[in-house]
Write a structure and sequence with these properties.
Layout (H helix, E strand, L loop, with lengths): L10 H9 L1 H24 L5 H11 L1 H12 L27
Length: about 100
């Protein structure tokens, strides 16, 4: 059985990943975990390691950090992006009805 074809990574695909909001969120979260690792290691007097810092940060801080980040990244009230309407135009009248 041959493995599925995997398209080689190109500069444009790598750039797309770097610009994606998911990757940006990952980087921001990783930075917070590294800060937590440093602070806890300093407090305890020894390097606690990434895995322990990760688990401790998730348990103690992740939910609050995400909520604060979501709130700070939300569009201002009254802006077009904050409107309650759908992000796409409404279907024309009579859409989906069979023609007589």
């Amino acid at each position: 059985m041959t493995p599925p074809y995997k398209e080689p990574a190109t500069a444009s695909s790598r750039e797309f990943v770097k610009q994606s909001s998911l990757y940006q969120e990952f980087l921001a979260e990783r930075e917070e975990i590294l800060k937590h690792k440093w602070l806890e290691s300093e407090r305890l007097g020894y390097d606690i390691g990434f895995e322990r810092a990760l688990l401790d940060w998730i348990r103690k801080h992740r939910e609050g950090w995400r909520a604060a980040r979501r709130q700070s990244m939300a569009p201002p009230a009254g802006s077009a992006a904050a409107s309650s309407g759908p992000p796409f135009p409404a279907a024309p009248t009579g859409a989906g009805k069979p023609n007589p």
